[in-house]
Write a structure and sequence with these properties.
By secondary structure, the chain is an alpha/beta fold. The protein has two domains: 249 residues, Aldehyde Dehydrogenase, Chain A, domain 1 (3-Layer(aba) Sandwich); 179 residues, Aldehyde Dehydrogenase, Chain A, domain 2. The protein is built from 14 helices and 17 strands. A seven-stranded mixed β-sheet has the order 12-13-14-11-10-15-16, with helices on both faces. The protein has a five-stranded parallel β-sheet with strand order 7-6-5-8-9, sandwiched between helices. Strands 3-4-17 form a three-stranded antiparallel β-sheet, with no helix packed on it. A hairpin with a 6-residue loop joins β1 and β2. The longest helix is centred in the N-terminal third of the chain and has 25 residues. The chain is globular.
Length: 456
């Protein structure tokens, strides 16, 4: 393998899945620039037809698509099938949003004709994550293409095969050459793309990388930088009646996707002196199956993305214990050379825990004496992506909603089940704009001009 090549491997087996060249950012940007005028001039109905043809390609090869995502990420097949379904569903959601938010509007006042029309920004870069290598970048790409933009897409270096497969579906759908170009590489390729001749960048990933991008964009206020990053998400349980249902909500919030969703609950905050919910969570966690994507029966969760990720989580777990955490369920790595981790629970009440995001199956328990202390603990983070309340009544939820520092607030449901049709994003270190939802990409950040003129 030469230094200019990238190899993607199956996290469960170490088997090579994909190998290809890295770099080529300047060439990709030049191709996109050349394609931009023709794509922007193409009538909207023709752009819609191509996106619907892409959906048809996704539907036709859905099982193949899902199996590839499972192999490259280690996620269970049942879960990757839902990811592929979300990729397909995003097309009609985006078409509807485009019609609602970016249509042409005319008015006349005081003898002046006014016309609101929307122009594409031009060339947008998309930096994708590994946890949802198809669904999350697709959430940027579809509405951006509908609005007439061209895209240079750099997927995570952990999941290049999924990106190439998705790019092939767009090509089969009739997308013109250069309108969507894929480049591969690690952080160096991402920095090169961010510094290239682009009109905006849509990013999903870690707060550390997002902060670096913000510094890189500091001298380019004319370029859009939309950041969707992680979170140290709190889940508050208060006056819970149905303990078993609450435990199921906690377990899904904390451990779905092996804890590799930016909306996973990282901290469970509850009233001191009542450990019924914690005991129910521990009992349910004991029953979770951890395994490979195609195992039968299907596992609840697979491995984390890589051995390096598992190593980092083990270091983070050791730091929680060093800070005084009391282990309730240990973080166990079944195979030293593979990244399978068990769901882990640790009591951090009274401990000075780090506010870093542990991107894996680790749940921290925090006991508090009263509601004010619960909200203080929930908001004791520089992040602000998701927050959830289990229990209480409508009045308590309204109070929780108003006091919680989070972009996505849930009640009696998992923190990690956001709708593709709703705005998605956070505050603080969790991000700035709403780069994933069509609510933004089809209107505010891809729009417009007002054209005025005197009535003849």
């Amino acid at each position: 393998m030469s230094p200019a090549e990238l190899v993607s491997t199956d996290p469960c087996t170490g088997e090579a899945i994909w190998q290809g060249a890295t770099g080529g950012v300047a060439e990709a940007v030049a191709r996109a620039r050349a394609a931009a005028p023709g794509w922007a001039r193409l009538p909207l109905d023709q752009r819609i037809a191509i996106t619907r043809a892409f959906k048809a390609e996704v539907d036709a090869r859905a099982e193949e698509f899902a199996r590839l995502i499972a192999r490259e990420t280690g996620k269970p097949l049942w879960e990757t099938r839902t990811e592929v379904a979300s990729v397909a569903a995003k097309v009609e959601i985006s078409i509807t949003a485009q019609a609602e938010r970016a249509g042409e509007k005319a008015a006349e006042a005081a003898g002046v004709k006014q016309m609101l029309r929307h122009k594409p920004h031009g060339l947008l870069a998309v930096l994708g994550p590994y946890n949802f290598p198809a669904h999350l970048p697709n959430g940027h790409i579809v509405p951006a293409l509908l609005a007439g933009n061209v895209i240079v897409f750099k997927p995570s270096e952990q999941t290049p095969a999924v990106a190439e497969f998705m790019g092939g579906l767009w090509a089969r759908a009739g997308l013109p050459d250069g309108v969507l170009t894929i480049v591969h590489g690690g952080g160096d390729a991402g920095r090169e793309l961010a510094g290239a001749d682009i009109d905006g960048l849509l990013f999903t990933g870690s707060a550390h990388v997002g902060a670096a991008l913000a510094r890189q964009f500091a001298d380019a206020p004319h370029r859009i930088l939309a950041l969707e990053m992680g979170g140290n998400n709190p889940l508050v349980a208060w006056d819970v009646d149905d303990i078993d249902a609450a435990a199921a909500t906690v377990v899904q919030s904390a451990f779905l996707s092996a804890g590799q969703r930016c909306t996973n609950a990282r901290r469970l905050i509850l009233k001191a002196g009542d450990d019924r919910l914690v005991q129910a969570v521990l009992a349910l966690a004991d029953r979770l199956i951890v395994g490979a994507p195609f195992d039968d029966p299907q596992p609840f969760m697979g491995p984390v993305i890589s051995n390096a990720a598992a190593d980092g989580l083990e270091r983070g777990w050791a730091q929680l214990q060093a800070a005084g955490g009391r282990v309730l369920r240990p973080l166990v790595r079944a195979h030293a050379d593979r990244p399978f981790l068990s769901p882990a629970v640790i009591d951090m009440t009274g401990c000075a825990a780090s506010d870093d995001e542990l991107f894996g199956p680790v749940l921290q328990i925090i006991d508090v004496p009263d509601w004010n202390a619960a909200m203080q603990a929930a908001n004791a983070t520089r992040f602000g992506l998701a927050a959830g309340l289990i229990g209480g009544d409508a009045a308590l939820f309204d109070r929780f909603w108003s006091e919680a520092r989070a972009g996505i607030v849930n009640w009696n449901r998992p923190t990690n089940g956001a709708s593709s049709a709703a705005p998605f994003g956070g505050i603080g270190a969790s991000g700035n704009h709403r780069p994933s939802p069509v609510a933004t990409l089809a209107s505010d950040s891809l729009a417009g001009s007002i054209i005025t003129g005197l009535k003849p």
